[in-house]
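This entry is passed on directly below:
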Amino acid sequence: GRSSLGGVLTSSLGEYIGVMRVTVAYFVMYYAFILTQAFNRLNVIRRKKKAEKEGRKAGPVSEDKGQMRWDRTVGNTLEQQGPFLWGLWLNALFVGPGTAEALGWAYVACRLYYPLVYPSVSGSRVLLWTSTFPNYWAILGLWGQLLYRAAGH
């Protein structure tokens, strides 16, 4: 016969505390990114207005290197939010919370690293890959285990 499903079908809610913590940490990080993006934008606008008052040329806010860093950090985080959170919780429920929690923490840690390695003026993306590729692998791990389980293993 078929093996019994892991996760919520055979476990107590207490086993999901780790996955809940990952989820809370993710949203704290996400909103910190959004607030940083907003405050950075206000600062760039303030500097732009000051420069214009002093007769200096100021480029568009969207071309400010710091603003680009936070716009892409928020954008990339949002782009991967659905696959990550759905994968995290479906994996925890139907495969088991242990691996979901471990992959979740790895994802959050690498996502936190993203704004620190976002390309500066040099434009090199090599360091950025140290954040994005592990994130993709974590998502692939979450969904791969789900597909394996769905195939009856």
